[in-house]
Design goal:
Strand content: 25-35%
Low-confidence stretches: 1-27
CATH topology of the largest domain: Spore Coat Polysaccharide Biosynthesis Protein SpsA, Chain A
Oligomer: single chain
Number of helices: 13
Distance between the termini: 31 Å
Number of domains: 2
Length: 409
């Protein structure tokens, strides 16, 4: 759809894309939610299944959209409006998302406007961004630009300027050129003060193209915030291939490393990657001293840029004394899922002279598979010595090195 600024009372703002703000960095009391409208049937996209639940790069379109909305720390809640026939499809699409900001879905109505009204009734923030469920490529920078502008404007909309030549046609022939000056292609999210857009939707039952048209009919001024050409709405069958290509260009692959050392002390076994290996000594540590699992945990936190095991589970806290290290690893896995990543590979190297590690590597890989959910053929555990050099060579303790590879889901 083309939008002419003067005709519809829109104001253009060439907003820059600032850094993503952290939680609690806004101090004006704004509490912004995102309402995702996903109750449509999407028949133009083909495929039988509604387009928002069809696969895109290994996950349903709607899962990508929800994760994109949750990626911004200043969003207080995300709510999805769904069709009453799609409850099972929705539950499956979001089953891997553990972020508590994702609230229970809202059932839609007979039209898009009715679905939005139902969703707005469930919202509780001061502001709301209304987004299409079939726009999975929303950027955090675009959300941030909207949040910055909505602090001082009653309405905001992402849009991109029309740059192609426009022609009026009877369907087959180019009959007359049309001026494109001042024309913009509207996208979503479209943001408003919650009370204002609720009132606008309550004031009319007339179907409208989007929430900007509803807002303008109610007298709400709407500011244009320049968006991105990659924020496409999946509408036609060929749009799936385009979205997949754009996602591939923006693939987020990360690698993290972990290193840990524990000295020997009294005991009758060592615990490595969750497997107890009989030995005439144990490892000394605040927890169970599983030096191998600690390195993999640190590697995962490192890939996420979320600190290290000591920051998440400080050794100064008594509750972690003697704790099983799988608690730490499970927390790292939880953070991986919350951030929308998938672990594609884990590699652990154990450095010691004794005990012999080789006979136990298969059991370690299996245990790591059980804890992380990563396929066993993507988990490597191996051992080496230091040729009797250094503390490990003198039999004073065990060191381990871990590497984790993460890919954005």
């Amino acid at each position: 759809m083309n939008w002419q600024g003067q005709q519809f009372g829109l104001h253009h703002c060439d907003a820059g894309f600032g850094a993503v703000l952290g939680v609690n960095q806004r101090n004006n009391g704004m509490n912004a939610e995102i309402l995702i409208v996903a109750a449509g049937r999407g028949t133009r996209a083909g495929g039988g299944t509604p387009k928002q639940y069809r696969d895109l790069c290994g996950a349903p379109v709607l899962q990508h959209t929800v994760r994109a909305c949750l990626a911004h720390a200043d969003i207080s809640a995300v709510r999805v409006v769904i069709h009453s026939d799609d409850v099972a499809l929705y539950d499956s699409a979001v089953s891997s998302i553990s972020d508590t900001r994702l609230k229970a879905p809202v059932l839609g109505g007979a039209s898009r406007s009715a679905s939005v009204r139902n969703g707005l009734a469930a919202c509780a923030g001061t502001h709301v961004l209304i987004h299409d469920g079939a726009r999975p490529l929303l950027r955090r920078d675009d959300i941030d630009a909207l949040l910055q502008r909505i602090e001082s404007h009653p309405g905001v909309v992402l849009a991109v300027p029309v740059v192609d030549a426009l022609w009026q046609s009877d369907g087959t022939k180019a009959n007359a050129p049309q001026a494109r000056d001042g024309l913009w292609r509207a996208q979503t999210p479209q943001g408003f003060r919650l009370k204002d857009i609720r009132a606008a939707h309550a004031a009319t039952d007339t179907p409208m193209a989007d929430d900007v048209e509803t807002a303008r009919a109610f007298g709400i001024d709407v500011e244009i915030v320049q968006g991105s050409d990659t924020n496409i709405k999946i509408t036609r069958p060929e749009d799936f291939a385009l979205a997949a290509k754009l996602m591939g260009q923006d693939m987020d692959v990360r690698t993290g490393n972990g290193f840990d050392v524990h000295k020997f002390g009294p005991g009758d076994h060592v615990c490595l990657n969750g497997i107890n290996i009989p030995f005439d000594r144990g490892l000394v540590g605040h927890s169970d001293a599983d030096v191998a699992m600690h390195t993999l945990t640190d590697a995962i936190f490192g890939a996420l840029c979320e600190g290290d095991i000591g920051q998440w589970f400080p050794p100064s806290e008594p509750e972690w004394k003697g704790a099983a290290s799988d608690i730490f690893l499970r927390k790292a896995i939880e953070r991986v899922k919350a951030r929308g990543f998938t672990i594609t590979h884990l590699d652990c190297t154990i450095i010691c002279e004794m005990p012999k590690i080789g006979p136990h590597t298969k059991a370690m890989r299996q245990r790591l598979c059980e804890i992380t959910g990563v396929d066993i053929d993507r988990i490597s555990v191996k051992a080496t010595t230091t040729e009797q050099l250094g503390f490990a060579g003198r039999g004073e303790g065990i060191a381990a090195l871990g590497t984790a590879t993460l890919v954005k889901s």
